[in-house]
Specification:
mainly alpha; disordered C terminus; about 425 residues; about 0% strand; 19 helices
């Protein structure tokens, strides 16, 4: 086969398989993303090793193209996450969500770094492990709360608000870590220069918000096909490029920032609907399958790192429950209410995968540790609905909060 035909048939297999396995996992009450990751693991060196088959004579080029398409998918995914971030709701949800989110970030970060150093990892590797553990997937918790009809309870609103704030904190931490350790050494870039470049990038990026809005309005009136969508994608790609090339932070930071800026305009819903079509229909599925393609669980779980993987999974669960739960408890929540908040923050989902993928791509974490982190993400994503259901089943009854923050936050998630 020619390189093009080889790529085409691989993409057919990836997209169809991702959608079918996602659908099957959905029937079992699990997030579709788990099915897409599982299909990637099936295709990768963990099981079938699709690109290692003799029929694929251009496996290296095909694999690299799939990886690049997946990176484009994660840029679009973070743009959508920015569009869906409800800034007014984040301001309204109050201190409980902020304190819970802070606890759910600080404790996993510290525990991940401490554990990594304890087992002899280099500093950059240990810091990145902690960074991955800070992530929280708001989509998994929101889906479960809706099913339980607990979305508008005090705990439900706090979980969703904290998860959104957690994402913002996590992206900022990721930006600093990537800037410091992308070359494998913190000494490569002075911390003051990292800080100056980051501050300058965010300052200029935010200051350009009025210009972005004016451009969108102007392009929307042009008599050409899909001018609004075209300009939005150009802005997302430019902000992503500038974030990494000029700001020294991860490209996804720029995509997320552009999503937040456009999310404050009248074009939010139109662009959200348009972007979801090709992002979720094609590119995002490739990203999640590619995660599995690049992870070799058989080698990781069969080697000396297996106990490290089990320890990381336990740390991932306990630190989120304790960190977010203690934060809620400090804000006056009862023990059961705090436990529910902590349980709702356990899932790492797509956010954890994004951070892990950046880590292995930049050479900060090795392939075997990357496989362990993929397993951690899958496990925490699977157990979160079980934890939430159990936490709401037992203990005192919940009451609907008389506030529209829960609904607003859910819509923005």
């Amino acid at each position: 086969m020619t390189p093009f035909l080889e790529l085409v048939i691989v993409l057919v297999i990836i997209v169809v398989g991702a959608k079918v396995t996602g659908w099957l996992l959905g029937l079992l009450g699990q997030p579709t993303v788990v099915g897409e990751i599982a299909f990637g693991l099936l295709l990768g060196p963990t099981a079938v090793n699709l690109l290692g088959m003799p029929v694929f004579t251009h496996a290296a080029e095909t694999g690299e193209t799939v990886r690049l398409l997946g990176e484009l998918g994660v840029v679009l995914l973070m743009f959508l996450a920015g569009l869906e971030t409800d800034m007014p709701a984040m301001r309204k949800v109050g201190m409980p969500a902020l304190v819970s989110a802070t606890g759910g970030v600080v404790l996993p970060l510290a525990a991940g770094i401490g554990f990594g150093l304890l087992v002899g990892m280099p500093l950059g590797e240990a810091v990145f492990i902690g960074t991955i553990l800070t992530a929280t997937s708001v989509s998994i918790s929101a889906q479960t709360l809706l099913e339980l009809k607990k979305l508008r309870t005090k705990e439900g609103m706090t979980i969703l608000g904290a998860a959104v704030i957690d994402d913002v904190m996590g992206i900022l931490i990721l930006s600093v870590v990537v800037a410091l350790f992308a070359g494998g050494s913190a000494a490569a870039v002075p911390i003051w220069l990292v800080a100056v470049k980051m501050v300058a990038y965010f300052a200029v990026g935010i200051a350009l918000a009025p210009a972005v809005k004016a451009l969108l309005r102007w392009f929307d009136k042009l008599p050409i096909n899909q001018p609004l969508v075209a300009l939005a994608l150009v802005l997302v790609l430019f902000y992503s490029w500038a974030a990494e090339y000029w700001g020294g932070v991860a490209a996804i930071t720029g995509a997320y920032l552009m999503g937040i800026l456009i999310g404050q305009t009248e074009f939010k819903h139109r662009l959200e609907q348009a972007t979801q079509v090709f992002a979720y229909g094609f590119f995002v599925s490739i990203f999640f399958v590619d995660i599995g393609l690049r992870a070799d669980l058989r080698e990781a779980l069969g080697g000396p790192l297996v106990w490290v993987g089990l320890a990381i999974i336990v740390i991932a669960i306990l630190t989120k429950v304790l960190g977010a739960g203690l934060g809620a408890r400090a804000m006056g929540f009862s023990n059961f209410e705090a436990l529910r908040v902590g349980a709702g923050m356990v899932s790492r989902g797509e956010v954890g995968l994004i951070v892990a993928a950046i880590g292995v791509e930049r050479g900060v974490i090795p392939q075997d540790l990357f496989a362990i982190m993929v397993l951690m993400v899958v496990v925490t994503t699977l157990v979160t609905p079980l934890f939430l259901r159990s936490a709401f089943k037992f203990g005192p009854p919940t009451h609907e909060a008389h506030d529209d923050v829960g609904a607003a936050t859910a819509e923005g998630s």
